[in-house]
Amino acid sequence: MSDELLEFHRDFLKDSLRLRINFSQTDQGRNVPPPPLEKPFEVGSDRISLPPREEMDEVIRNRDLLSAITNRESRRHFSIVPLSLPELAFLLWSTQGIRSMAAPGVALRTVPSAGARHSFETYLFVRNVLDLNNGLYRYLPVEHELLLIGKVERMGPRLVEACLGQGFVGSAAVTFVWSTIPYRMEWRYAHGAHRVILMDAGHVCQNLYLACEAIGAGTCAVAAYDQEGMDRLIGLDGEDEFVIYLAPVGKV
User: Fold this and answer.
1) What is the CB neighbour count within 10 angstroms for residue 131?
2) How far apart are CA 62 and CA 214, in angstroms?
């Protein structure tokens, strides 16, 4: 990377710290209604109800937070043992689950987010989950359901290709892919939104690491991927919504 490009990226971070947002000039300040908490879906879409908290609690093997933090590491080797649906539900709830509604259009979730804006959507490439057909899904946090997007031919090889040849991505039971819809954050923070979106992505993925430790699974955060290739694989426009982070998950 050239010195000029390094300086550009460092300036992006520093300039974000210097920003003084005039909230009266944001869409929130103009009384524009907030964007929805999740992308809409068609009535009658193929949706799968996820197990409730009671069933999720039963699959947690280790409730010791200190052990989860101590043992947390990136894991790239997964067994052929499938994830159960309650285990997958627990991972989804841990990373984007809604605990309560603070106000109309404002959700308090299991992870922090600047202004409780939560700009992310969670997509899942499912390969080895009990009682769940392989394919591409989207998590619906409001309903705590999965929305089936469709089958993906040659899912493993295509994921590996989009992740620049990282083979372990194609061997996971499920690969979490987080996209961002920037306007959800821009609505409140305008030009100051983009730095905190990146911070929020770290919050989400760290919760996935710790939740995996609790159920005997592992994950590895992946930020090296072909942007256009990943967006295309999910069917995103790459402008109003695009992939920002991903993490394959499997039993270890």
Assistant:
1) 11
2) 5
Domains of the chain: 3-251 (3.40.109.10)
pLDDT classification of 191: cutoffs 50, 70, 90: confident
> Could you tell me which of 200, 168, 167, 160 has the C-alpha nearest to residue 184?
200
Which DSSP helix (H) or strand (E) runs through 86? Answer: helix 85-96
Strand, helix or coil for residue 113? coil
- Tens-digit pLDDT profile for residues 120-173: 999 999 999 999 999 999 999 999 999 999 999 999 999 999 999 999 999 999
**pLDDT tier at 101, thresholds 50, 70, 90:** confident
Give the Å distances, CA to CA, from 162 to 7, 69, 170, 230, 233: 28, 30, 10, 6, 8
At residue 191, what are phi and psi to the nearest 5 degrees? -70, -10
- Residue 92: partners with Cβ closer than 8 Å, 6 or more residues away: 50, 122, 139, 141, 144
Residue pair 89/144 in contact (Cβ under 8 Å)? The answer is: yes
From CA 23, how far away is CA 29, in angstroms rounded?
5
DSSP 169-212: GGGSSEEEEEEE-THHHHHHHGGGHHHHHHHHHHHHHHHHHHHH
Q: Phi, psi at residue 32, to the nearest 5°? A: -70, 135
